[in-house]
Design brief:
By secondary structure, the protein is an alpha+beta fold. 40% of the residues lie in helices and 12% in strands. The two termini are 21 Å apart.
Length: 68
């Protein structure tokens, strides 16, 4: 069982550009659907969670680590 994550690569932080693209995507979806937008984040990337919260939305996070 200890090798079950042998192919897992540690996460990387999103770049400034990644965050800008994600923010534009969120803004477009908010314009289209209002505050009913639901956001699923795969992995517990704090930068994405913070950006979603700054838009007054609730991030739904799916991560392999239950504590996250």
């Amino acid at each position: 069982m200890e090798n079950c994550w042998k192919n897992y690569k540690p996460p990387i932080r999103p770049s400034k550009y990644d965050l800008e693209v994600f923010e534009k995507f969120l803004d477009d979806k908010i314009k289209l659907y209002g505050k009913d937008v639901r956001v699923l984040i795969l992995g517990s990337t704090p930068e994405f969670r913070s950006l979603v919260v700054s838009k007054k939305l609730v991030p739904y996070v799916c991560d392999y680590n239950r504590e996250n």
